[in-house]
Specification:
Strand 3 and strand 4 form a beta hairpin. The protein is built from eleven helices and 16 strands. By secondary structure, the protein is of the alpha+beta class. The chain has a six-stranded antiparallel sheet. The protein has a five-stranded antiparallel sheet with strand order 2-1-5-4-3. A five-stranded antiparallel sheet has the order 13-12-16-15-14.
């Protein structure tokens, strides 16, 4: 058979093209393998890989070829998600794929119970078509460290919130440039309940009495001047005490501690803590020889009624003023009696509420106000008495005044503030 020169040239050219294509394919394959081999040195550090699957959910390819990940190994072995994911996660995954067009930016997060423990992964998917065939491409990221870190942060935040709420403490900051005072964690009341809207920027003039605000401002300004002069905060371990308006305008003592720093924008800032203080912490300390004399003197105040009750509201002791005001010449008459039956109704209700608060919280409380419509006002202080770290008794002191005198006294206090 005779082959023309043109046909022979065409055949030779075709063979040449095929040979060149074959050589190029080999070179590209070798280049791809060499690129994939680069990942071998980082196999334990990679936390992302790509999965290509058919429309029937059968594995077509995994990239990169070298990665040390439990889910990656299981996919290479099982060729699908069916025997890897739990039934609930597999159902969620199928729902995710069906709704992919509606929510393309939302990842699918699932857990995998591997030999190394429970691991967490995030999956993003795109659907691709090649001619009549379609396949799915998944980008899978190992999020275990992120989930564990987030869980640890949440636990730390929860524990810190519980600690601050349990003690009544809070964190605060001051933007020196704008003189903006912010409370960073919620304040809590006497029962440990969060005070609404106590977090965020606050007008410090409204939460501190005037004299306390002046002391706060002088202390902070002195620290700022020292920091600007030396570049260091030499008094960061020193605390100072101010009063803050609490529930029902009650004044509460706090011990403030702070540190002057430069923030990430090199602006001067103060971060600090405020520790709630019990009145008992501020009480003076006396030697043993002076205690009996001081206690006897305290119970001898002529216009101050003082008495002590246990958890059943039984009177354990009282001073002479208390006894005379309630119709007895000697305080021994009231020992063991129910205090609620001794007082008038108005005082008894207030007394009961205050005592319950002290027994529950272990903190001293005070109250001032009108007892009845007859114009009698009272000032009451209730203090816990601890024995073996248990509050089993409380000491109550009180005094009476006329409504007109009480209102005049309150007016003067408001003018001072």
């Amino acid at each position: 058979m005779f082959i023309s020169t043109g046909a022979l040239a065409g055949i030779l050219f075709s063979l040449f093209v095929v040979l060149v294509a074959f050589v190029i394919s080999i070179l590209l394959y070798r280049d791809l393998r060499s690129r994939q081999d680069v990942y071998a040195g980082f196999s334990r550090d990679l936390n992302e890989f790509i999965v290509i699957m058919s429309k029937d959910g059968i594995l077509l390819d995994l990239m990169p070829k070298h990665i040390d990940d439990p889910l990656y190994r299981q996919l290479a072995q099982n060729q699908s998600f069916e025997n890897i994911l739990s039934i609930s996660d597999l159902n969620r995954f199928n729902d995710y794929i069906r709704g992919l067009d509606a929510y393309p930016d939302i990842p699918f997060v699932f857990s995998y119970n591997s030999e190394e423990g429970v691991l967490w992964y995030g999956l993003r998917a795109v659907m691709q078509k090649t001619g009549a065939e379609s396949h799915s491409v998944y980008l899978i990221k190992n999020m275990t460290l992120d989930v564990e870190s987030r869980s640890q942060r949440d636990t730390i935040q929860k524990n810190m919130d519980m600690l601050l709420q349990g003690t009544g403490d809070f964190l605060w900051s001051l933007d020196v440039e704008n003189r903006q005072f912010s409370i960073l964690t919620p304040m809590s009341d006497d029962e440990g309940r969060v005070v609404p809207r106590s977090v965020g920027v606050q007008d410090i003039h409204t939460i501190l009495p005037k004299v306390d605000f002046k002391f706060f401002a002088d202390t902070v300004n002195s620290r700022i001047v020292d920091f600007r002069a030396t570049g260091h905060d030499h008094d960061e371990h020193r605390s100072f005490k101010v009063r803050i308006y609490g529930e029902n305008s009650k004044l509460i003592w706090y011990s403030f501690r702070c540190k002057v720093i430069n923030d990430e924008n090199a602006r001067l800032k103060i971060n600090g803590t405020a520790r709630r203080m019990d009145v008992l912490m501020e009480s003076s300390t006396f030697n043993e020889e002076a205690k009996d004399a001081l206690l006897s003197s305290a119970f001898s105040f002529p216009e101050l009624g003082i008495f002590c009750v246990d958890r059943d509201f039984r009177i354990q002791g009282c001073n002479q003023t208390f006894a005379l005001e309630h119709g007895a010449s000697n305080g021994a008459f009231f020992i063991g009696k129910d205090a609620k039956t001794v007082f008038k109704m108005g005082f008894a209700n207030i007394f009961t509420d205050l005592c319950m608060k002290v027994f529950e919280s272990g903190r001293p409380v005070s109250w001032r106000g009108l007892l009845d419509a007859e114009g009698i006002a009272s000032s009451i202080n209730v203090t816990p008495v601890e024995q073996d770290n248990i509050v089993n008794k409380i000491l109550i002191s009180y005094s009476y005044t006329l409504k007109s005198d009480f209102e005049q006294m309150m007016k003067k206090e408001m003018e001072l503030l």
